[in-house]
Specification:
Length: 351
């Protein structure tokens, strides 16, 4: 069957494979305390382990996750029409990582688009994939996301070194006949908080006596830079629940209609506050925060991969993805699961 005739009978774009790639090196609370973190703060944040890339680049991790998603979808790299990439720290200012990842996996036919929206990048990436499919532009689309902060780590700031992990995840999306894929989305932004979180040339946040103080790119979280601290915190706590509420209003659903939630995983005091405000039962939340930490743009896709590989998701399940990224941007996306995802393709039946 040709690609064109497949599109005629397959009118929905569904997740048909997921992938994940994590570095081998693990670090945990004892390492963070040795580096100067306050043990009481680590308990408050509910910090567990995360992974640190010592030799792998962001595109190395993206390529591993991408190839896994492609294999689980039953594709080859030549089947990919489009790649959409999201990363927290690109390997160059320009071009975006996704072009190099495309080359590393051998997806010679694929176009490559980069999205720079930090931790919430996969939400607009999935939105774009769905829109381009509906417009008849692409059929087999690969979304990849990664975080690798070695070049911008602030070794003095526990909000960074004790929380942010390295890793990548991917989702392969392809045409299916049954109703599946993106149901509804909602994106919003508050540019007055543009300076509060990001990566910029700066010295260490907490300079140590006799320690290095050179100015270089560092990831930072400075709550007061965009104005009143209390106002910023209030917005952070309310913005994600508000976005989810608006998304559900669009499709006349409630939280009770949602089967699973794959959140952006910030520290416990933030991400669990969103979940509590929304009234989501913990049993319906898939997260990897205690194992991988905050892996930036890879968070929601790592959690999607975890739920899929554990067999938690069933055909037709409604899965909610949400989170917040520097900018500050907020996004929520409701996805209907397809039973084909991460299931080996079945041989054709008799004619």
């Amino acid at each position: 069957m040709s690609r064109t005739s497949q599109k005629d009978v397959a009118s929905h774009l569904a997740v048909v494979g997921t992938g994940a790639a994590l570095p081998e090196t693990r670090v945990g609370p004892s390492d963070f305390v040795a580096a100067g973190a306050d043990p009481a703060l680590l308990v408050e944040w509910d910090v567990g382990e995360h992974r640190v890339a010592s030799t792998e680049s962001a595109t190395d991790l993206e390529a591993r996750a991408a190839l896994q998603a492609i294999e689980r979808a039953g594709w080859t790299p030549d089947d990919v029409d489009l790649m959409i990439g999201c990363t927290l720290l690109p390997e160059k200012v320009n071009p975006s990582n996704v072009a190099l990842t495309q080359h590393k996996i051998g997806a010679r036919r694929a176009a490559a688009i980069g999205i720079d929206m930090a931790c919430i990048g996969p939400v607009p990436a999935l939105m774009m994939a769905d829109a381009l499919f509906r417009a008849g532009q692409f059929e087999r689309i690969l979304v990849v996301a990664s975080s690798q902060l070695r070049a911008a780590m602030d070794e003095t700031d526990p909000a960074v070194f004790a929380v942010c992990g390295d890793g990548a995840a991917a989702a392969a999306l392809g045409p299916v006949g049954e109703h599946a894929g993106v149901i509804a989305t909602h994106l919003t932004a508050q540019g007055q908080y543009w300076s509060n979180v990001g990566i910029e040339p700066r010295g260490p946040r907490y300079p140590r006596a006799g320690g290095p103080c050179e100015v270089r790119p560092r990831f930072y979280i400075d709550h007061s830079r965009g104005g009143d601290v209390k106002q910023f915190f209030a917005w952070c706590m309310a913005s994600v629940p508000d976005a989810v509420a608006e998304l559900l209003r669009k499709v006349d659903l409630t939280i009770g209609d949602i089967d699973w939630v794959c959140p952006h995983q910030n520290v416990k005091t933030v991400s669990e506050a969103w979940i509590d405000r929304l009234g989501i039962p913990r049993a319906r939340v898939v997260e990897t925060r205690k194992e991988y930490g905050n892996v930036g743009p890879a968070n929601v896709l790592l959690n999607l991969d975890r739920g899929s590989m554990r067999g938690s998701f069933r055909h037709g399940d409604k899965i909610l993805l949400f989170g917040q990224g520097s900018g500050m941007s907020v996004g929520a996306l409701l996805l209907q699961w397809h039973g084909r995802a991460n299931t080996p393709p079945q041989p054709p039946g008799p004619p």
